[in-house]
Amino acid sequence: MGYHQKPQYLSKTLEQDLLLPRVLVLRSPSVPSFFFSKSHLQAHFHLVDPLDSPEPTHSFLSRHAASVLALLCVASTRVSSETLSLLPSLKLVVASSAGLDHIDLGECRRRGITVTSAGQVFTEDVADFAVGLLIDVLRRVSASDGCVRARLWAEKRPFPLGVKLGGNRVGIVGLGRIGSEVAKRLIDFGCSIAYCSRKEKPSVPYPYYSTVSELATNSDVLILCCSLTKETHHIINKGVMEALGKEGVIINIGRGALIDEKELVKFLQQGQILGAGLDVYENEPHVSQELFAMENVVLAPHAAVYTLESFAALQELVVGNLKAFFSNKPLLTPAQLE
């Protein structure tokens, strides 16, 4: 191919790319690469990405506002009302997460913007992780690992006894898709299940409590699987922890602000609850310093969804929702915005 022919080939490729449906990508530079497969998406869409441009995000969005119909929100990147106001033509927000508290759903509803979520892509992996955190806290798996690595085993230092998993009364806060999968797994371990949700589920065989305090009073373990809303913010407060009691354990794979973290630290420090397994925090990625020294607390970096299988399925779901939108077909995982 001659020198003068190469630019012609490149311009043809660019022209083909520009004919693809345009999708605005909003993502933080710190988001792990497996949340966002650019090469996979570029095979189907022309990506408009502020991180590929040197100009400020605000002016970049303003420049592309008229042409953007669909927005891909990567991980928990904030989509505020201010951001939405810069996009007057926007009709769809595709979220790559199950939780949607980082998106201004009220503004989307007001403007008639449809939102999709990750649906059930992460359900089984998050449920597995919740059970893993509980086993770790009760049986002190991480603490045992630390003991061996610190050479304390060889010194015959005494190591505290763990707690048997089977026989525990587990209260699940939010018996949706993930909560139901957690329940199924723990039933097989010999635990009894009760739950608290916005509404009682007649088809569910587990006891229902209308308040979290009542659930805590009748549970040894609380597992938080609900979404974060104004109503569920700090749903685990001082009163709930008191109701749970000194032998109680809290597992959170929902959102950090479901728990009053300052109160949780106090209860753990004072031995007023037995332990906690936390995958999420109030001020991520910052974690309360006091938690680092506690052997009865297991900490994870918001990683419950991190499996090869779940992210492969997520990429297909994102592409499927975008293709459905641009083809005027039913979306795969539309979210309820009420």
Automatic annotation (TrEMBL):
Ranges where the D-isomer specific 2-hydroxyacid dehydrogenase NAD-binding domain occurs: 131-304
Tell me the InterPro entries matching this sequence. Answer: D-isomer_2-hydroxyacid_DH, D-isomer_2_OHA_DH_cat_dom, D-isomer_DH_NAD-bd, NAD(P)-bd_dom_sf
Alphabetically list the UniProt keywords: Glycolate pathway, NAD, NADP, Oxidoreductase, Photorespiration
Q: What SUPFAM superfamilies has UniProt attached to this entry? A: Formate/glycerate dehydrogenase catalytic domain-like, NAD(P)-binding Rossmann-fold domains
Q: Which GO terms describe its biological process?
A: oxidative photosynthetic carbon pathway
Q: Which residues form the D-isomer specific 2-hydroxyacid dehydrogenase catalytic domain?
A: 60-333
The protein's superkingdom reads Eukaryota
**Entry-linked CDD domains:** HPPR
Entry GO MF terms: glyoxylate reductase (NADPH) activity; hydroxypyruvate reductase [NAD(P)H] activity; NAD binding
Family to which the UniProt record says this protein belongs: Belongs to the D-isomer specific 2-hydroxyacid dehydrogenase family. GyaR subfamily.
Q: What is this protein called?
A: Glyoxylate/hydroxypyruvate reductase HPR3
Query: What is the primary gene name for this protein?
Result: LOC18606413
